[in-house]
Write a structure and sequence with these properties.
The protein is mainly α and 157 residues long. It contains 6 helices and 4 strands. A hairpin with a 2-residue loop joins strand 2 and strand 3. The N and C termini lie far apart (48 Å).
């Protein structure tokens, strides 16, 4: 969602269906949110934090500032500077979890230029590109215990 949100923030108007969502654009460092890594080093004694976490926190601070700056720039011509700065903080600094869905209603409440009426031409264009039916399994049965098969006597075959 975050990549699509960055694209949407560059637009003059964001057009969303009622069930569409945007998402926070807070940077992720591998499996961890940058804001959470920084929070850890602020709460713990720095002498009890391993070097890798300190390095990740340094990267996290840079990433948070970079994305905040980018979002502020994207919003700068759509709203007053103080509102753009506030919204950039909310979207980029770890206010929500990275997978938090921002609905059309919430996008409007945040002050984003979001409209809910999708033009019919968009649906007509999408109809020209039907998506193939998936033929892959969505669920796979894995018998337990999981591991190499064994013979009736308990020895591997």
């Amino acid at each position: 969602m975050s990549g699509g949100t960055l694209i949407a923030l560059a637009a003059d108007e964001i057009v969303m269906q009622n069930h569409a969502v945007l998402g926070p654009v807070d940077p992720q460092l591998g499996e961890y949110p940058a804001a959470s890594v920084i929070k850890v080093i602020k709460k713990k004694d720095v002498n009890k934090v391993d070097d890798k976490t300190l390095i990740m926190a340094d990267l996290g601070e840079k990433a948070l500032e970079q994305i905040r700056s980018e979002v502020t720039e994207l919003l700068g011509d759509k709203m007053p500077a103080d509102k753009a700065n506030s919204l950039a903080d909310k979207l980029s600094q770890g206010t929500w979890t990275h997978d938090h869905p921002i609905s059309l209603k919430q996008a409007r409440e945040l002050g984003l230029p979001a409209a809910g009426k999708m033009p019919d031409e968009v649906y007509q264009l999408m109809a020209l590109y039907p998506q193939p039916t998936q033929r892959q399994q969505t669920v796979q049965y894995v018998p337990t215990p999981y591991g190499p098969p064994t013979s009736p006597k308990g020895k591997e075959d």
